[in-house]
Structure formats: C-alpha cells, structure tokens
Amino acid sequence: MTTNSIVALFGAMIVLAAVPSVSVLAVSTRSATAGLIHGVFTTLGIVVGDIIFILITIWGLTFLAETMGGLFVLIQYLGGAYLIWLGVRLWRSTSKPMQTEVKTTSLLSSFLTGLLITLGDQKATLFYLGFFPAFLDISNISYWDTGIIVAITIVAVGGVKLVYAFLADRARLLISSNMTNRMNTVAGCIMIAVGVFLISKAFLS
After folding, report:
1. Residue-wise over 49-77: b if at least 16 C-beta within 10 A, else e?
2. pLDDT tens per residue across span 167-189
3. What is the pTM of this model?
C-alpha cells in the first residue's frame, strides 16, 4: 500500500464509522446507560467483528484474483455497483434521533453486543469486497498490507466509536435528525465516489 492509499482508506473508514447506525446506537446506549467502560467493550466487539470480516474478505479476494484471472474484473464491476447502490440508499435515507433505554448489563454482554451486531450484518463482506480494491492491489497483497489495514480499522473504527461512547457517557448524546441526514449524505457521496472509481479502474484495466 502507498502512503496515499493508506491516508485515503483511513479517512474513508473514519467517515463511514461516524455515520449514525445500529453500531453507533449500541455504543451510545451502553455508554449512556451503564457507563463508559460498557461503551468501550461494545466498541471492542465491533472492532473484532470488523477485523474478522476484513481478514476473510482480503484473503478471499486474493484467492479469487489468483484463480479467476480476467473474470475478477467482473467482481470489481459488481462491487463498484454495490457501493454505488448503498451510497444512493444512504444519501436518500432519513433518520430519527437516537433514543436510549436504561438497562443493567455485564461487560461480556456489551462486548458480545458489538461483536454480534457486526457479524450479523451479512452485507459486510460484500461491502468490503467492493471497497478494498479501490485502495490496494488485491492480486499483490502482503501480510504487511493486511497488518496496516487491521491497524487502520482499529484506530479509525475504534477511535470513532470511542468518541461516541465518551460523549454519550458525559452528555447522554442525542443526535438530531438533521445532523444524521447530513452525515448520511456525506457518507453516501463517499461510497458512490468509491464505486465509480472502482468501475472506472476495472474498465481501464
């Protein structure tokens, strides 16, 4: 991976991690109702789930690139189209403010909440399938590149979720619909741009 691709991937993952979602709701709720430490453990579960999906996706893509040859371009087209579709849906979506409910829970429960929320998203692999080829050469990926991506995930995704946890713990954060919609628009535009870039890259290859 080049310095530019690392910076681009890091920035994109920060923005996407910041979009109000089920995982953000879980982190904020746990932190606001049970304390910051529960928000931290929920975040840890989310990050572990993301890393599992990323490792499966990266090495699965490497296998596909090596065995499918030219047909791998088709996967790039499909991945790009999928990202554009997700971006349009996110752009056009409307959201309601997050609400929290009081409940007593354990640290293990908070961790499992974050982990299972992430692993329960069956579209995550497809998302990464379309996302990563825009930032790295899948056919020539190394263990070092994989380590960089995992580190980016820990810092970007984990860092953003911890910010939500801290704010929710201190101020019982309530995100307005207008703020949520603006963030959805920004994230949607990023996904559309990445999708278009991926399709263009496949077309020119």
Report:
1. bbbebbeebbeebbebbeeeeeebeebbe
2. 887 765 455 555 556 656 766 67
3. 0.67
